[in-house]
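BUG: 3D viewer hangs when loading the predicted structure for this chain

Environment: internal workstation, default settings.
Expected: structure renders.
Actual: progress bar stalls at 90%.

Input used:
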Amino acid sequence: MYDTFKTAIATQVSALSGVSAEIVELAVAVSNNMANGDLTLTVPRLRMKGNPAQIAKTLAEQFQADDMVTGAEAAGPYINFRINRTVLTRSVLQAVHATGPKYGWTNEGAGKRVIVEFSSPNIAKPFHAGHLRSTIIGNFIYKLHKAHGWDAISMNYLGDWGKQYGLLALGFERFGSEEELVANPIKHLLDVYVKISAAAEEEAEHIKAMDAEAAAAAGPTIHDQARAYFKSMEDGNESALALWQRFRTLSIEKYKQIYARLGVHFDVYSGESQVGEGMTRAIQMLTDTGLLIEDKGAKLVDLTEHKLGKALVQKSDGTTLYLTRDIGAAIERYEKYNFDKIIYVVASEQDHHMKQLFKTIELLGLPYADRFEHINYGLVNGMSTRKGTAVFLEDMLHESKEKMHDVMRDTEAKAKAKYKANANFMAKYKAKAEAKYKEVADPDHIADILGMSAIVIQDMAARRIKNYTFDWGRILKFVGDTGPYLQYAHARLCSLERKAHVKVNPDADVSLLAEEVTRDIIYQISLYPDILAASIKSLEPCTVVQYILKLSHSISLAWETISVCGEADDVAEARLLMYWSARTVIGNALTLLGLEPVEAM
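Structure tokens produced before the viewer hung:
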């Protein structure tokens, strides 16, 4: 939004200083403190000989104000510029009106393809709070790339192969029930997994207490049997594969229901089991390049000189591991999709694995080795499927939805909170709140959206690398800087549009928006394209969350004094255009974060 003003400043400063306009424009930025000016030029970045403060003073004195840039003032080694606020306001609001849901979008990724791999749960295990992080962060990154013109592909790489499925098969043989599997497959498979894991731990403790001879005579352990079962899967045993395929199919169907509720779309469903001859080729390439070494029958890559230890790629029994399959998958993906970039959204606990993967791909000499990126995130502490301590996403969504619905229905509590001891005002407010609730077309659906908003925003409010401990109080919070607060800000602006006696007019007289609080709202709206530009570099959802919280706070400050209803038509039109633009930006940002903006609540 400020490009026109920056260009005007750069053109004149270039003529005065002899520095190229391109260099000058790069040195001009939106001011951190609007009280000092709208745009600031950092003089040292011009690399001119002499005292920067004196150069700033001279340039500011020589600068000629015009209709675009109304003034310049030196402040040490900086020059603060004032711009024509009416011109800025008009260009910002007209840009929002013209582009609507695509306001702030760019074409910088045009002609380039990115794969974003995210979510990637292990089949036969329910979604828990930990899985949610990869899903919502990955979905944001996918949508963000699309907003910048990339040909983005969302991929779900399921954890559907490995020894744990041998363990699950043994568990189902011991503890499984066909009736329970059909009735509630995911829950039943989790129960089976927890029971067989506990049995394996108990067995391991029992063997520890034995002497060496007794332990040797005890026969194959549960884990030994699980490894043997997985080996039979890799060898193509039809019976083993049939049971595994059944677990996989039931799990994917359940996941699809959850993704639909979250509004998450995947272009490709893949999985470790789907990696074919790419894996064989990967092992052959490792052998041909001399990277593969043997140790007691196992095959590994020695990355110790890169401070990454030794990476096991094939066990002594011939079964493969994550790294083998990931290398094979990388080869197959590039050959199929010819990507310019691939992003793996994987928890920070896998940092070492991802470094081993990327370094191995680099050492193989693959020409696309520089196109891999790992976006990590912190853990949700207190989540363990094996120990049965995970809090499942469906439970979170249900609890959060019910909490939001209770808040929507509890008009008595709302009245007391607002007017406390004033019985007359309480009665009026309660009646108004009850009428408002009845106006909501589908309160159950709205409560579900509010519940998801509460979960998503509390997760995305801080930098993604931060760990946090699961806390129902944090999840179910309705007031403060929360998802429901942002939805309320959006719904309230929608209500204003419905009640206004004028229509949104892009040609409204915006010079009437002269108040300081309206100036702040326009300024916040103008920053959205910059927020998107910053976000594509950092891939931090919190950048967008904190931005819309700040914009919503500015709107709340203006709400009581900058009214629309009851004002003269020209004033009402200008203010409605501003509020409509703010509502559009909030809605766009919520959509980018993977949430459906509500219009009434």
